[in-house]
Amino acid sequence: MATTTSSTPISDWRLRKRLGTILTYVAMTLLAIFFLFPIVFMLVSSIKNSETQVVTDMSSLYAFIPHGELGIQNYFDVFGQLEFGRLMLNSTVIMLVTVLSGLFINSMIAYALARLRFRGRGLLLGVVVALIIVPFEAVAVPLLLLVNRLPWFGGASTWLNSYHVQIIPFIADAFSIFLFYQFFINIPKDLEEAALVDGASLFRIYWSIILPLSRPIFATVAILQALASWNRFMWPLIVTRGVEVRPLTVGMQSFFGQDPRLWGDLMAFASMITIPVLIIFLLFQKWFVQSVASTGIKG
Amino acid sequence: MAETVPKAAQEPVPKRVGLAPVRASESLMAWLFSAPAIILLIIFLVIPFVMAIGLAFTDQRLIPNPNLPTQIIGLRNFTRMFQDEAFIRGLLNNFYFVVVVVPVQTSLALFLAILVNQKLKGMNYYRTVYFAPVVTSMVVVAIVWTFLYNEQGLINAFLSAISFGALGPYDWLRNTKLVFPAIMLLSIWQGAGFQMVIYLAGLQEIPNDLYEAAEVDGANSFQKFFYVTLPQLRNTTIFVILATTILAFKLFDQVKVMTDGGPQNASMTTMLYVIDQGWGQLKVGYASAVSVVFFLIVLIISLLQRRFLREERQVE
């Protein structure tokens, strides 16, 4: 066998290529284990009913093996004691309102910038692009001072501890506007011009011509904004107090800070934040990857 | 990366042949369409930004004391922060993070992208796995890894097993030398998949005939990588490096959850310091001054990025 492989250059080349492929798969599998083990560890720990077992298993391969008394006791605990349902509702409401209103408002201005002729258009576009550089982190503290004193309907004199303080500041987003703008300028104009000649209003053109043609960019922006909203932590941490309006991230951190730390419950909590996003990610994987790839345009 | 910002800004609006010139109603509609976004951006980004610069020179507090009105104190906030060990520690940690995480994460991401870009079976599954941490909330990641870093936890067990008991156990998050590298590791774990996808997009844009030409010239895989792949990925690499650097300066979530800057400020970061001063200790003026320094750092990085990318375009 050894003599035949080395005797002809072709089979030698084939053997080497085969060896290369095997090595590639080994490397990729090891990397896959590295990227997967904390997630598997979290999911497996969360279904072990006994806290003692979770802790004794944590230092061996048993950590990855569902064994012993399995069940959803930890999930029950989390739902029962922690108002988990409330936190989940808060995160969902905040995310949906932020993303939907953001899609509308950011695409509207992008449409105006890409298609309409008006004085100040170039300046406005320049300002939007410049604003991409300003990170939210740089304005968080003065914004805290500002929202602390902003009035709201019904006589409230502060925005703190509310849904809207977690939604309204994140609706308009310079980078989303830029993504929409880039997409819109590449749409052929024929259809719009025909509609314009037919006397369609500009809003009608935006709504029934531009929107249907722009589904990919809407999906991209929606995914980026939804992920950002779902995972947002610093701002809700400093502007919310009670469980009534808090999102999951802040609720989880405060649960984590309580003594004693019940790892089984914590892993169940963590799994419940992660599983919905993972499922949505697996279903719309292509879109997720495309969204992230599109952030590469930035700059 | 093809479309350039300045080019877009300068691009003249094409004339619509055969239609009437600018209509007043079109102008009005344009401003109506833009108004909601403009108003929101002004209130929640521009005004706080201007406030940050103004407040940086005052001793404003979040809840002002009626007996002690806010005063303008000149540059005192700035001189004070550079005398505060916690701030300096935080800033140095951000640089420490950049120096370690940026090269490691960027090369790991490129490696992953090249692996999953091969035309082999099952590549999609591997890509999915490498990307999964990206969609996992950082707070969740921080808590799971705190568990893994436990003194009796999995990471110590693993180290002990591969070193036949010579290494560990370490108390990762309470050890001033180990805490920050520990946080770096999980940050790389969470972020590499994001950069991988950007590299993947870059790889797929490289024209195949470049590789074919290299093969005709007898180039081996390494030569193809160094003389075709890397130069073609120049723009992507600049983007990835600078974006990761900016993220490194924003470092907050995982540190807040895992250590809150401790022990003894060993894992302090600039953003942690800003929030601790502005929200924890209500010193809005002082925290604004730190925010301004933070912004200047991010601005310099962003300008470097735009400059590098522009130079590349001019060469082409």
CATH architecture annotation name of chain B: Orthogonal Bundle
Helix segment count of chain B?
Answer: 14
Q: Return the average pLDDT of chain A rounded to an integer.
A: 89
Tally of structural domains of chain B: 1
- State the CATH topology of the largest domain in chain A: MetI-like fold
Classified in CATH, the superfamily of the largest domain in chain A is: MetI-like
Overall geometric form of chain A: flat
Domain module count of chain A: 2
Tell me the number of strands of chain A: 0
How would you describe this structure in keywords?
heterodimer, A: 299 residues, mainly alpha, MetI-like fold, 2 domains, disordered N terminus, B: 316 residues, 69% helix
Notes on the structure:
The complex is a heterodimer of chains A (299) and B (316). Chain A is built from 16 helices and no strands. Chain A is mainly α. Chain A has 2 domains: 70 residues, no CATH class; 215 residues, MetI-like fold. The N terminus of chain A is likely disordered. Chain B is an all-alpha fold. Chain B has a single domain, classed as MetI-like fold (Orthogonal Bundle), CATH 1.10.3720. Chains A and B meet through helix 2, helix 5, helix 6, helix 7 and helix 9 of A and helix 1, helix 2, helix 4, helix 5 and helix 6 of B.
